[in-house]
Amino acid sequence: MPWTFENEHPFGSALTVRKHRLHNGLGVLLVEDDAAPIFTLQTWYRVGSRCERPGRTGMAHLFEHLMFNRTQKREVGQFDREIEACGGDSNAATWVDWTYYRDSLPSDRLDLALDLESDRMANLVLEDEQLEAERDVVINERIQRVDDDIDGFLDEQLMKLAFEKHPYHWPTIGWMRDIRAIDRTSVLDFYRTYYAPNNATLVLVGDIEEGAALDAIERAYGELSAADIPDETAATEPAQTGERRAVFSKPVTGDRLSIGFKAPPQSHPDWLVLEVVSDLLTGGPSARLYRRLVVEQEAAVSIYSGVLPFRDPSLFYISAAMNRDHLAADGEATVNAELDRLRSDLVADDELAKAKNSVETDFWNPLTTVDGKAEALGHYETTLGDYRKLFDVIPALRSVTTEDIRRCAREYLVSEQSTTIVAERATDGADRDSDAGAGERGDPTS
Known about the structure:
This protein has helices at 59-66, 78-85, 110-122, 128-147, 150-162, 176-181, 184-194, 210-221, 269-282, 288-296, 328-344, 349-364, 370-383, 393-398, 402-412; strands at residues 3-11, 15-22, 27-32, 38-45, 89-94, 99-106, 200-206, 244-250, 256-263, 300-307, 314-322, 418-425, 433-434. The protein has 15 helices and 13 strands. Helix 11 (328-344) crosses helix 15. The strands form 2 sheets. Strands 1-2-3-7-4-6-5 form a 7-stranded mixed sheet, sandwiched between helices. Strands 10-11-9-12-8-13 form a 6-stranded mixed sheet, sandwiched between helices. Strand 5 and strand 6 form a beta hairpin. The chain is an alpha+beta fold and 446 residues long. It folds into 2 domains: 3-221, Cytochrome Bc1 Complex, Chain A, domain 1 (2-Layer Sandwich), CATH 3.30.830; 244-434, 2-Layer Sandwich (Cytochrome Bc1 Complex, Chain A, domain 1), CATH 3.30.830.10.
């Protein structure tokens, strides 16, 4: 038999997720949802910037662009034209732990979507012409989103300084020198290694019939061969034992502040507790840090926080844009004061209940659409190794206690595990970089 049925799980009261595997290793998650005559097909590859190495960064993201190019069956631009001709939509995303491609189409166009995706999985044309065209696109994207964007710059510097050995150290888009150095041989190698059925999961949600869908998937992918996928184990990040800090002079109207604290991976129970902590701090006008910095002190124009949903040990971050009359040091002092409160005092029951309700609302909202359902399933299957872990979130969230909040604040949100990046307003219009701090030190340049 070409198919192996692996498991199933209820998705709410009316839907079911069913997992199958094709003989060549291709994973398939199916959800029949006939609420509207549409479907989404998402192809999740277990490849991201974590699969790269120093001197070869940016490859996974470059492929997000290359995959919309020419194949042995289709000319440049034909992929998009075929999708758009039937009223469909397509997109893609790359991150540290994964890359995925999405096609959303009317329910009678499943064969088209499968033909398009299997074609570019196996038959992508990778000549110098395609490589150079997409390299230029990525270079311009990096200039716009990182080099000429203060938020992108700070995010990149925070990860670079916080992680020393792990591939999370480098940006998904890649270092500029590496993007310029990517050659055709490396591109072909990357494609043949990671773009294979046994490194992918198809997530199909919408107005489909399971038996017909499996037959169509077998026709499209059944003749593709598995690849020899290298070990996914990344370098272990050493324990951080001292504060890290870097300061940059930038042409900003007000100081910018980003603070990161080492955090557990998304699979760890404390990751969800830190999600609640984030909402307590910056989840809205009544949240602790937002109320203090933005509403009462008027010291910051914005502040946000979160914990990154990574496969490996992650980062809890707090970022603030200061008012022109207040320094980053003012914001940092308020952040430290609020973190001290979390570490010393138990959160009130009603405050905790409000934060948990907010996090739960944010969890449910994306799951109202077929795209949102598929993206959640694909992320949990690819990043955490099992889509069924998605359904453990709400019970775990509802069990978070005030003691959990204080314990995690004491364990993770401490100065010796912190990395601080500051962008100061350049008084003479210059754009200079420097570093300063105590404890562990980091190189603030690329």
